What does this fold into?
Amino acid sequence: MLNFTRRALQFRRDHSALREGSLRILEASDNLLSFERSLGHQRLRCTFNLSEDSAPFSTCGKAVVRVGDIDGGSIGPYAAVIEEIE
It folds into this structure.
């Protein structure tokens, strides 16, 4: 857990869009939180499944962080993904 936290903090330091960029909420429900952060040419979509059930999900970029089960059509329980959008 400590290693994951360190990697997550380093990822945030390396991507200024996560610290200073604009925020656009794509979905905020009881089960799913999805938002886009952008700054200049850098765009990231962050998606978190906050439930114990899988949820529909489709990729829109290159996954740079993945936690849990994520496939082409769903995001697994308590899974998360951060995608870099070109």
Q: What stands out?
A: DSSP finds two helices and seven strands in the chain. Strands lie at 22-28, 32-39, 42-49, 55-56, 62-67, 74-75, 80-85. The chain has one domain: 2-85. The two ends are 30 Å apart (CA to CA).
